[in-house]
Amino acid sequence: MPIGAADGYRMSIANPARIGGQRSVGVDPVRPALSVPTVDVVVPVHNEEIDLAGCVRRLHRTLSESLPYSFRITVADNASSDATLRIANELSAEFSDVAVVHLDRKGRGRALNQVWSASPAEVLAYMDVDLSTDLAAVLPLVAPLISGHSDLAIGTRLHPGAQVTRGAKRELISRGYNLLLRRTLAVGFSDAQCGFKAIRRDVAARLLPHVEDTGWFFDTELLVLAERAGARIHEVPVDWVDDPDSRVDILATAWADLKGIVRVRRALAGGRLRDVQLEHRLGRRPTARHGHSPRMTRFLTIGVASTLAYLGVFWALTGRLGGQGANAAALLLTAVANTAANRRFTFGVRGRTARARQQVQGLGVFAVGLGMTSGALALLHAVDAHPGRPAELAVLVAANLAATAARFVLLRGWVFRPEVRGTR
Hints:
Strand order of the largest sheet: 1-2-5-4-3-6-9-7-10
Largest sheet: 9 strands, mixed
Structural class: alpha/beta
Low-confidence stretches: 1-33, 279-292, 419-424
Helix content: 40-55%
């Protein structure tokens, strides 16, 4: 029986069947089938043989004691090559409300999309296997969805009420990433990356077909689409203790996230996601705060392209020039192109009149950005003498976002002031 059967089931490794590219499992004929759960908590895993059993037992105990709704825990195995799948099936045999789904390909987003799309539960949730979030937040996460108060709920580590224990590097990366989202996609939610989220099944059915990412950017893309579609997003401040043994490749993830941001920005600007609308069901239109003026949209698009170019140059030169030298060189190389692009496309200035002066002034704006980013790097090195390139990149992304705001003000009010923008 596939995972979406509406009359209840229990999944085990007996009689495996292939369904839509994923291997689901058949019904155990010995143990009785379960009724449809109210909450389906998905735990995506890849090669987690060490932590999986402890995680599931702790999660099961907490849900049994504190959640006043029926639940199921679904372990979504992402092509593990160790004993993860065997342990998951042993846990499924031990607990009647633990299910297992195996996927032949990796990807947290792929696992969540497939399991959520097929689950009959009213509320679909997920959390990371390290259980970094205090599980006392599970009920506040799902209750607003069950009551109909909200459509989607997220744990946030950036709310004043959250208690977070993690290193300075991850703190800077997280804050820099969420600041980048606010500047480029105009999002209103505070924390896109916290591995602690839930969504109503009917809302997921509308949004999931439009989510393209199959990896770590899945969360961000889903949240952006939900917010643009008028969904009510509930934020839960969480207590969070970072896993020091996390095996996430920070650089590869950051690069994939940047590409995802550019892709979603293009999709939104091109109108390809206009059919993703929930406002008819909710009886209202999406909030107006998501809109950009055309000038700001062009400025942000150029800014994202410049940031990507800057990060590539910095990464290539930092081994030869050191952090500060690579930062200065990368900023200088991208400053001229950035000024020229903003002159033409953002502020509509054409012709050669004042072009040389504007480039000189653009270098002045570059100096402001250099001061902000160099100061941020100096502060990082004061805290950690050997932070490594990923941490330096994270700090520079955050500093560049602040410098971007200053650059827009200077370009608009000084370099391309109104009397110059009228020149042809």
